[in-house]
Design goal:
400 residues; alpha+beta; Aminopeptidase; 2 domains; 15 strands; Acyl_CoA_acyltransferase; Acetyltransferase (GNAT) family protein
C-alpha cells in the first residue's frame, strides 16, 4: 500500500487506543453512509473480470492522479486481468454499488512454509477507494471483508493513511529494515560543505575510499565465483534449471519461506511493464549459489539509486555468493552514477552480512508487516522464526 494510494481515513480520525473494530460494526457504518443495507454491501464485493477493466482503470486514474505516469492498462492486465490463458499474479477485488465501482483491493496468493507447516496466505495490495468515500470507513471494511473471505491475509508496507486502517484489522509482525550502501558522495558533501571545490574534493576522496573498501571486502571474497547476467530463463533451458535448483537450496528452517518457482519469478522480474530489472546469477563451478535482482529508482534532484528487489542465496555458500553478487551490482551501479544501493528485508542472517560492507540501517516508519491468521498453530510457527524470505517483489511498489 504505497503512499500514493488513497484509503479510508476512519482509523486516523479515531483514537488508536480504541483497537480493532468489528466487521459488523464497520459494515453498519459504511452501509449507512452509502445508503444501502449491509447485505447489499456484502453482495457487491466480488472478484473483477476482464469486463471490469475500464472501471478499474478509471478508479486508478482518479486515485493516483499525476502520479500515474505509466501504461496502467498494460500493468493491470499483467498483474490482475490478463487475457484468457495468460498468466496473472493476483486477484483484483471490487466493492460495487450496483454498476458503480466504489473501491478495489488486490490480493496475491503466496504459500508460506514455517518449519513443517505450510499455509496459503494472501498478500493485500493496491487498496483504493473513490475520493468522495474517503473517511466513510470503506477502506477498513474492504480490508476486513478480504480477511473474512480469504482467511490468512498479509499486508506488506503502509503509509500515513493505511497505517491506521491496518491497526484496525491486522496484527503487527516485525518490520522490515532498509539498508543503504553509499556509492557516490557528491550530493552528500554538497549539502554539508559550503565551498563547491572543497565539496568536490571531499566527494572524490570518499568515492575512492569506498571503491577500495568494496575491492577489499567484496571482490577479494567472491572472486572464485562466476557471476553472469540473465536476460531470460525459459522452461527447459539450463538457466531455468539453475533457478529452480537455487530456490530449493536457499530454503532455511530458521525463517519463514515464501514458495517461489522459476516461471513465476521470470514473470515478476522480466515481464513487469512498470519496471526494468537486472538479474545476476552466481555459480560456484556449475552449481548455482546465489541470485540478485535489481532496478534503478529515481530520487530527488534528477538523481537515481539502485534497489535490490530480490535475493536468493544458498546458505551453504552465503558469504562468498552474496559478496560476489554485490561486487558486480555495486560496480555497475557506480559506473552508472547511482548515489547508493538500497535493500529492504527482514532476515537477520543476511542482514548481519551487510554491516561489515558499510551498509547503514535506515529507519523507515512504513516498512511494516502485519497480518490476520486464524490458524493458531501456523501463527505460532511463524512468530517463532526470525526472518522471512519475503522481498520487494511481493509488494505493489512496482514503479521505477
Amino acid at each position: 500500500m504505497p503512499a500514493g494510494h488513497v484509503v479510508s481515513t476512519l482509523a486516523n480520525r479515531s483514537a488508536p487506543a480504541l483497537g480493532p473494530i468489528s466487521r459488523e460494526k464497520t459494515a453498519r457504518l459504511v452501509s449507512r453512509a452509502l445508503g444501502v443495507t449491509p447485505d447489499v454491501l456484502d453482495a457487491g464485493f466480488r472478484a473483477a473480470t476482464l469486463a471490469d477493466l475500464p472501471a478499474v482503470l478509471a478508479l486508478r486514474r482518479r486515485v493516483l492522479g499525476d502520479a500515474l505516469t505509466w501504461d496502467d492498462e498494460r500493468y493491470v492486465r499483467w498483474r490482475y486481468l490478463p487475457e484468457p490463458g495468460e498468466r496473472s499474479l493476483a486477484t483484483c477485488w471490487l466493492c460495487t454499488r450496483g454498476d458503480e465501482l466504489l473501491g478495489m483491493i488486490g490480493t496475491e496468493a503466496l504459500c508460506l512454509q514455517a518449519g513443517d507447516l505450510r499455509q496459503q496466505v494472501h498478500a493485500a495490495m493496491d487498496l483504493m477507494v473513490q475520493p468522495e468515500w474517503a473517511g466513510s470507513g470503506l477502506g477498513v471494511w474492504v480490508n476486513q471483508t478480504v480477511c473474512e473471505r480469504l482467511g490468512c491475509v498479509l499486508a506488506i508496507g503502509s503509509n500515513p493513511n493505511s497505517k491506521g486502517v491496518l491497526a484496525r484489522t491486522f496484527e503487527a509482525l516485525p518490520a522490515r529494515r532498509t539498508h543503504t550502501h553509499p556509492l557516490h558522495f557528491a550530493h552528500f558533501m554538497a549539502k554539508r560543505l559550503p565551498h563547491g571545490l572543497l565539496a568536490g574534493v571531499a566527494a572524490g576522496l570518499a568515492d575512492a575510499a569506498m571503491v577500495v573498501l568494496r575491492v577489499g571486502r567484496l571482490w577479494s571474497t567472491g572472486w572464485r565465483l562466476s557471476v553472469t547476467q540473465l536476460a531470460q530463463w525459459a522452461p527447459g533451458t539450463p538457466e531455468h534449471s539453475d533457478i529452480e535448483t537455487l530456490l530449493q537450496a536457499a530454503q532455511r528452517s530458521d525463517r519463514v519461506e515464501v514458495d517461489r518457482d522459476a516461471a513465476t519469478l521470470a514473470h515478476r522480474l522480466l515481464a513487469n511493464p512498470r519496471t526494468r530489472c537486472e538479474v545476476w546469477l552466481a555459480r560456484d563451478g556449475a552449481r548455482p549459489v546465489g541470485m540478485v535482482a535489481t532496478r534503478s529508482v529515481p530520487i530527488e534532484g534528477g538523481r537515481h539509486a539502485v534497489q535490490v528487489l530480490d535475493a536468493v542465496i544458498d546458505p551453504a555458500c552465503q558469504r562468498p555468493a552474496l559478496r560476489a553478487l554485490l561486487a558486480r551490482v555495486t560496480a555497475r551501479a557506480f559506473r552508472r552514477g547511482a548515489d547508493y544501493l538500497t535493500w529492504t528485508l527482514y532476515d537477520p542472517a543476511l542482514e548481519a552480512e551487510l554491516k561489515p560492507l558499510m551498509f547503514r540501517t535506515m529507519p523507515h516508519t512504513y516498512e511494516t508487516m502485519s497480518w490476520v491468521c486464524p490458524d493458531a498453530a501456523f501463527r505460532e510457527a511463524v512468530l517463532a522464526r526470525a526472518g522471512w524470505s519475503l522481498s520487494d517483489i511481493h509488494t505493489d511498489r512496482d514503479s521505477a
